[in-house]
Amino acid sequence: MSDVKKLSKVFKALSNPNRLELYLKIKNHHKIEIGKKKRACLLSSLCESLNIGAPTISHHLKELMNAELVETDKQGKFITCNLNQSLLNEVIKELKS
Predict the structure, then answer these.
(1) Cβ count near 62 (within 10 Å)
(2) Which residues contact 90 (CB under 8 A, 6 or more apart)?
(3) Which domains does the chain have, with CATH numbers?
(4) Can you list the positions of beta strands (E) in 1-97?
């Protein structure tokens, strides 16, 4: 990842304490099975575990999505969240080089 703008967008998104907490919660939260292999975190579970309101969570989730750090998917009436593992791997690789 030699795209400085993309890397900057990632760090900017994670620089907000609420967004960083949300990102880490998605990373560490209990995952549910979706289909055969996909594992995802329910957004409703995240709302219960954070001390911020749903509109604020929605705003921060949108910022994380804009930075391509997380992906969401609608499963019936539920919204699931996943880390974008390939982007995370790119950032780690860039920081190590």
Answers:
(1) 13
(2) 1
(3) 4-96 (1.10.10.10)
(4) 32-34, 38-42, 70-75, 78-83
